[in-house]
Recover the amino acids of this structure.
């Protein structure tokens, strides 16, 4: 499971033109997870807030 902040960053950086491998490396997540977030951003946006946010 990836934090909401990391998911938001992955989507933002993908829209800005970063490659999936680079995003995954920068966020410290797996490439497969990163691709899943990018392919289905509605799942990341619809995820319930846990009340805690992590800094990157």
């Amino acid at each position: 499971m990836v934090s909401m902040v990391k998911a938001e960053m992955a989507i933002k950086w993908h829209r800005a033109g970063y490659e999936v491998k680079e995003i995954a490396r920068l966020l410290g997540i797996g490439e497969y997870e990163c691709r899943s977030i990018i392919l289905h951003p509605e799942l990341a946006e619809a995820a319930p807030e846990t009340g805690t946010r992590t800094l990157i």
In short: The mean pLDDT is 83. The chain has four helices and no strands. The helical segments are 4-15, 20-27, 31-39, 41-46. Residues 17 and 52 are 28 Å apart (CA to CA).
